[in-house]
């Protein structure tokens, strides 16, 4: 894992986030608040779906708070909390997923369980 992790602030213009994705060749990157707390994970797809950037910011371009982690897992990120749901083949696999998510800067808590309720 690269340290420090490349991220953008939630207030960053979408154009800036898209430039970071392109410059580093990433498919996505963390969006953090002013204190560095992970809010969401912005994907290249989110940037493309937003169309011409205009006044759009990294946080308003998000189409969904969920991030696919593996073919059997999904991770939802909200206000520094990551909830991993899905099927784990073993306790070791569950510990690895939890450890990987915990390494992302701004993550305050990682839990295993059902999907978070929508705030929409």
Summarize the structure.
With 120 residues, the protein is an alpha/beta fold. The chain is built from three helices and seven strands.
How far is the N terminus from the C terminus?
33 Å
Q: Largest sheet at a glance?
A: 4 strands, mixed
Q: What do we call the CATH topology?
A: CBS-domain
Summed up, the helix count is 3
Fraction of residues in helices?
25-40%
Could you say how many structural domains there are in total?
Answer: 1
Q: Radius of gyration from the CA trace?
A: 14 Å
Give the strand order, joined by hyphens, for the main sheet: 4-5-6-7
Q: Tell me what portion of residues adopts beta-strand conformation.
A: 25-35%
Shape verdict = elongated
Helix/strand order, N-terminal first: EHEEHEEEHE
Assign the CATH class.
Answer: Alpha Beta
Number of extended strands? 7
Assign the CATH architecture: Roll
Task: Name some characteristics of this structure.
3-stranded mixed beta sheet, alpha/beta, 4-stranded mixed beta sheet, CBS-domain
What does this molecule look like?
With 120 residues, the protein is of the alpha/beta class. It has a single domain (8-112), classed as Roll (CBS-domain), CATH 3.10.580. It is 25% helix and 27% strand. The protein has helices at residues 14-24, 44-50, 91-102, and strands spanning 8-9, 28-32, 38-43, 66-68, 73-78, 81-86, 109-112. The strands form 2 sheets. A 4-stranded mixed sheet has the order 4-5-6-7, with helices on one face. A 3-stranded mixed sheet has the order 1-2-3. The longest helix has 12 residues, at 91-102. The radius of gyration is 14 Å and the shape is elongated.
